[in-house]
Amino acid sequence: MFNIGFGELVLILIIALVVFGPGKLPEISRALGKSVREFRQAADTFSKEMMSETEDTRQAVRTVTDTAAETKKEITVAAEETKQAFTAPKNEIMAAAEETKQAFIAPKKDITAVAEETKQAFTEPLTQVKPVKTAVTKENGTHE
After folding, report:
1. Residue 140 domain-assigned (yes or no)
2. How far, in Å, CA of 83 to CA of 89, rounded?
3. DSSP letters along 37-54, please?
4. Total structural domains in the chain?
5. Alpha helices of the chain — where are they, by DSSP H?
6. Within-domain flag for 101
7. Which domain holds residue 66?
8. Contact of 29 with 20, CB cutoff 8 Å
9. pLDDT tens figures, 77-101
């Protein structure tokens, strides 16, 4: 504890014996031993309290970390649900827009087809008609 060698300890004991005398030396030794014991107990108690507080702090940090992880997970799930909530109607709107577009394109194709058929119906008879010559006579104004 104090890194005192055997020679140094003997020297300290001899000086204590000379200063305090042989009658008081056992009392002083007991008092010193009791003080050292109390100091060690106090140091052990302090060390245990510090370890306990450290463990409590570690437990609090674990609790906060776990809570943060759970909160992050809940936020991620909520964000995904919100995304789905907006994506589903968007997809429905896009599908409805496509159906509406098809509803307008189909009649246009039908109208185009009907117009083409009508054009064919009118142009075919005209190509099949043979030109008829009519001559008007000058004299009586009749046709031949």
Report:
1. no
2. 11
3. HHHHHHHHHHHHHHHHHH
4. 1
5. 6-20, 25-128
6. yes
7. 24-128
8. no
9. 999 998 888 777 777 888 888 888 7
User: Cβ contacts of residue 143 below 8 Å, gap of 6+?
Assistant: 134, 135, 136
Structure tokens at 23: 């009658």
How does pLDDT run across 40-81, given as a tens digit for each residue? 999 999 999 999 999 999 999 999 999 999 999 999 999 999
User: Is residue 136 one of the residues assigned to a domain?
Assistant: no
Q: Is residue 122 part of a domain?
A: yes
What single-letter amino acid sits at 40? R
Burial 9-18 (b: 16+ CB within 10 A, else e): eeeeeeeeee
Residue type, 75: I
Q: Tokens for 26?
A: 């056992």
Q: How far apart are CA 27 and CA 33, in angstroms?
A: 10
Report how far Cα 144 is from the mean position of its chain's Cα atoms. 97
Please tell me what DSSP assigns to residue 129: P
pTM: 0.40
